[in-house]
Amino acid sequence: MTDAAVASPETVRPVRGAAPADAPDSSAEAKKLSKEILAELTYSVGRTPAKASNRDWFVATALAVRDRIVDRWTLEHDPERPKPAKRVYYLSLEFLIGRLLFDALHNLGLTEETREALAGLGVDLDKVRTAEPDAALGNGGLGRLAACFMDSMASIGVPAFGYGIRYDHGLFRQGMRDGWQQEYPEDWLSFGNPWEFPHPEIDYPIGFGGYVEQVMQGPEPRHVWRPAETVEAVAFDTPVVGWRGKHVNTLRLWSARAPDPISLDAFNRGDYVGALADRVRIESISKVLYPSDETPAGQELRLRQEYFFTSASLQDLIHRHTAENGDVRSLADHVAIQLNDTHPSIAVPELMRILVDIHGVPWAEAWKITLATFSYTNHTLLPEALESWPVPLMERLLPRHMQIIYLINALELEAARERRPGDDDLLSTISLIDEQNGRRVRMGVLAFTGSHKVNGVSALHTELMKQTVFRDLHGLHPDRIVNKTNGITFRRWLAQANPGLTEVIKDAIGPEFLDDPKHLEKLVPLAGDAGLHEKITAARRRNKIALAKIIQERNEVYVDPDALFDVQIKRIHEYKRQLLNLLETVAIYNAMRAQPMRAWMPRVKIFAGKAAASYHTAKLIIKLANDIARTVNSDPTLRGLLKVAFLPNYNVSLAERIIPAADLSEQISTAGLEASGTGNMKLALNGALTIGTLDGANVEIKEHVGDDNIFIFGLTAQEVEARKRRGYDARAAVDASSTLRQVLDSIRGGVFSPDDPNRYRDFVDGLLAHDTFLVTADFDAYFAAQRQVYKKWRDRPTWMKSSVINTAKGGWFSSDRTIGEYAREIWDVVPDTA
Ligand SMILES: *Cc1c(COP(=O)(O)O)cnc(C)c1O
């Protein structure tokens, strides 16, 4: 059963020349699936087909599909089978997964068979698909990267575990009230989660607080941490099946459980709330995801979350390692641990504690093991986003770790002092303790110090890392920083999200690109082909009609599918500069009002993204977008030629609907501030042209697609630095640009907020006083680049040629490529691509 299920002949035939497929085979598969789905519906869900909702069908289908994954999974983890030489452990506080049904079906080659099976039962697979809630255990790019990496590790055969937290509530649901963002709790688990296996028997104690004791065992004193409080970490496993079902890895998420479910003393006294209080407090650790993005959460509960999942993961992997290999000292030969940002960097002192205090490994040897095992990915250079924790909090919560951090620091500073005598400035920048701001532990320095490799996520970001945050550490360890430009999984972001375009590509160049995206380059010689343009245009038009329908339903705005769809979808943040896009929108609006009868090009400005609940400016920008949308959309002088839509509740599933319908991709962050971006890659791959700054991976997209196929504008990272150093004067820039002056006047004066004319007065004044993200500095260049967009869009064959080249050159941005680089250059793991 397994072989047929794992790689159905239908999907394998064209590439691998496996057994030729014929219709009866695939429909036999559909019949089998149909029986299995019905059995699951009856015996696991407990429903009859007549009574079943789409949600019930989803659960039954997921369970039937899961069985086939599990067959592979158990085979791969069979104790009789040879162990992989080395495993990768990816520690991430966030996994922004989205829905899993089509991932599983696509990778198993069962999508069409399942469609047929359900159709036979009178059920529509597409409706079943949308009944699955998004697993939104992440904020944005960082969490989505972790999810793409899980898919790629399973696909290229890197034996791996992902470790994180099973939040009861993922990222909040965004609603709109009068154009203001409202946050509502997210409830993805309320109907159960058919993909996961709870393992209440896999649990580890996680300590907090208490004190450290020295006990004599032989000549050396040993440190024993006596925590005041213990939380249990319980495992929930989700199998992650890779492309063509060859490999299945595990995503293991930890849930917090109180050792004592109830205080019977309190209960018997009649104090029913008090009887549960401890349990509620302890289990709050895995209750909610912190919704901040690019800013540290800062609260004690967050530090508890970080230590909770890190400690559970280390205990678990060391348990596996010693069971398989006996000696903890050989850990680095068999284990590579990747720290996704600094959130798990408490792993460094935790591993030292386990090795030295528990296993009695001498300090120097333990440090070698630690360095050889860990590597760390930096995701941001924004100074306000660099994590640090107050020393008193660390001492109270993790007293032994604080001692270990002090000792690591003393040894590192001593080594640096020997190499650079007299350089006290150096010592203060490489110290694990920031003495300037009330004594804090710098988590970035801790992660850097404890890792053999530290990577940035795009070429530019890695270069800036060397020059800024880690300049001195880089000087001391010049081989440690490497670049690993981010990537995206093509299986989700092309094949599943855009089946129309995928079919057109298959017809044009064959299906090999599904196995190796480099084959997309075969499109290059066809880039000018009118027949291909026609097919791609037709496929995109269908996607645009589908998106127009969503905009109609959710925003009650009609948009013309033949207009240019100009898309900016990402977290709302000042550095991402949604404001710059809005200012241009107002500039077009003003121009159209001034000359209503000119032949204006139809355009739809589409926005989506969440703002951190406490980020007031970001929330005001959302309100501004909605105010502009209302004004523009209801102005009859525009004849519907300009529309603006802010789609609420941006998440992975909404991204999958917007991206295949986009013509223009807005990647307009202040240069030097977006570490990589991955939304830029998804949109380019699907044939949208990028308008963007030379920031993050935009630089590499430009190199791959060529200058003629991208709209680059604005200050470079170096120029941004220089401007800031000189002291930037926004007022002067605005005085020099009559368009911008007029735009800001209209917003400030209440043209878009007649109900509250002063709503944006302080905001605009603030921008003129401190334009931290240089919106006004880049406005004219951005406006001019947008005019180039218009020009090219009018010459549709040239536009389409650029679009095809964007898809053709997108292969390099596959996360399979990224993971291959991590495997070879950081983890020293050989992927099993056989
Ligand atoms: C890809 C993705 C992101 C990251 O987008 P950027 O434009 O790179 O910031 C954020 N959220 C979701 C839901 C995504 O799919």
Automatic annotation (TrEMBL):
Instruction: Name the keywords, alphabetized.
Output: Carbohydrate metabolism, Glycosyltransferase, Pyridoxal phosphate, Transferase
Q: What is this protein called?
A: Alpha-1,4 glucan phosphorylase
Lineage top rank: taxon: Bacteria
Q: What does this protein do?
A: Phosphorylase is an important allosteric enzyme in carbohydrate metabolism. Enzymes from different sources differ in their regulatory mechanisms and in their natural substrates. However, all known phosphorylases share catalytic and structural properties.
| UniProt record similarity statement | Belongs to the glycogen phosphorylase family.
Q: Which SUPFAM superfamilies match?
A: UDP-Glycosyltransferase/glycogen phosphorylase (SSF53756)
Provide the reaction this enzyme catalyses.
[(1->4)-alpha-D-glucosyl](n) + phosphate = [(1->4)-alpha-D-glucosyl](n-1) + alpha-D-glucose 1-phosphate
Composition skew (Low complexity), residue ranges: 18-27
* Organism encoding this protein: Chelatococcus sambhunathii
**What are the names of the required cofactors?**
pyridoxal 5'-phosphate
Q: Where is this region: Disordered?
A: 1-29
Tell me its EC number(s), please: 2.4.1.1
Name the top EC class.
Answer: transferase
- Cite the Pfam families for this sequence: Phosphorylase (PF00343)
